[in-house]
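Sat 14:20. Reprocessing the chain from the morning session after the first attempt stalled halfway. Input below, unchanged.
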Amino acid sequence: MNKIKVLFLAANPFKNLNLDVEVRSITEKIRASEHRDYLQLIPALAVRPDDLLQLLNEHKPHILHFSGHGNNSG
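Finished this time. Tokens:
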């Protein structure tokens, strides 16, 4: 069975978001779901713009979830 890959990208250069809490909440919801065997959450924290293509090519996700803020460089 192939799982649906959800790549969770997080960027928080200003440290004003609770991204660890968000990842934990999503993980808990997936574990409690009847569809948990069909989903794989792949968290990537402190992501920089240069990381994006590498992570997409490495994991080949079906779904991309982004949480965060950017700054002048990305």
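Helices lie at 19-32, 52-59.
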